[in-house]
Design goal:
Blueprint lengths: L5 H8 L3 H21 L1 H23 L4 H20 L2 H21 L6 H21 L5 H25 L15 H22 L4 H29 L14 H23 L4 H6 L2
Helix pairs in contact: 2-3, 3-4, 3-6, 4-5, 4-6, 5-6, 6-7, 6-10, 7-8, 7-9, 7-10, 8-9, 9-10
């Protein structure tokens, strides 16, 4: 038996930190710049995100079968190209049709269904669609996406450091063995701070609202992480792929973002309509 001393175990907790920071330094400026550009550039970025998500999901759940891959990639394209060409409603209809096609094709092929094989197409398609809806607000779309990104990044960052520095009781060890209650609390604090700070800098009113929604989205972001962890546990893998150094695959990187985006877009659409979702989530 090899004994691991505290001094040698301590650096292991931070082994991936350098790669995480390096990846963030490269990717974050690109994401912020493309969001500022908007239009087709933003659609291409979200489409690439959805495309990589589709490839990883099909590999994990459908054993990389070409027909399923084609359906999933079609959902990724529809969710990003159609919103600004024909409107979000048309994109949603196409995603639903592709969803039915995926389920029927698997049935015809004689493959057993599972929860993950059924929810894959809507997960990929709607994840991209809600990001397109938020950015599609001509007046507040860009700032709404910036706010969302900062809240999610803040929650994710403080969850990472709180979990490793404080540790303590596990949150849901059967799904994600490394997640702790300290990490969840750190995520909530990060979401609140980043949301409030962004609102203050951007000159947005109702600071109490931004603190509240920051906390809510932080919890949702962590729930999205657990959802993807359950997917990987079902597939028997540690990461969805090795696409992003220090972060794993695209599913690993955006699981919390797309969950938070779905809630933000839903609130925005309910309050101000699908064409002004950014305004609906930011102005109270």
């Amino acid at each position: 038996m090899v004994n691991v001393s505290p001094s040698s175990a301590e650096p292991a907790k931070w082994r991936d930190l350098g790669l995480r920071v390096a990846s963030a330094v490269v990717l974050i400026p690109i994401i912020l710049w493309v969001n500022w550009l908007g239009s087709v550039w933003y659609a291409v970025l979200v489409g690439l995100m959805a495309g990589f998500m589709a490839v990883e999901w099909v590999k994990l759940i459908h054993a990389g079968r070409p027909v399923q891959l084609a359906v999933y990639l079609a959902a990724a394209v529809a969710s990003t190209a159609l919103p600004w060409m024909a409107g979000p409603s048309v994109a949603l209809i196409v995603i639903l049709v592709l969803w039915v096609g995926s389920v029927v094709q698997r049935q015809i092929a004689g493959k057993p269904h599972s929860f993950w094989s059924i929810v894959g197409v809507p997960y990929i398609g709607l994840s991209a669609l809600v990001l397109m809806i938020l950015r599609g607000d001509p007046q507040f779309g860009a700032i709404a996406v910036y706010w969302l990104l900062f809240v999610v990044w803040g929650a994710d960052t403080l969850a990472y450091f709180a979990g490793r520095l404080i540790g303590g009781p596990k949150l849901l060890p059967s799904i994600s063995p490394k997640k702790t209650w300290a990490g969840l609390i750190g995520a909530v604090v990060g979401g609140i701070l980043c949301s409030a700070l962004f609102a203050r800098v951007a000159g947005l009113d109702t600071l109490l609202w931004f603190c509240s929604i920051g906390a809510i989205l932080a919890i949702v972001e962590q729930a999205g992480d657990f959802f993807e962890s359950a997917l990987k546990r079902s597939a028997g893998v540690k990461d969805s792929s090795a696409l992003i150094p220090g972060h794993g695959g695209m599913l690993d990187r955006v699981d919390g973002l797309v969950a938070a985006a779905a809630v933000a877009a839903l609130i925005g659409c309910v309050r101000a309509g699908i064409s002004a979702a950014g305004k609906g989530i930011l102005l109270w």
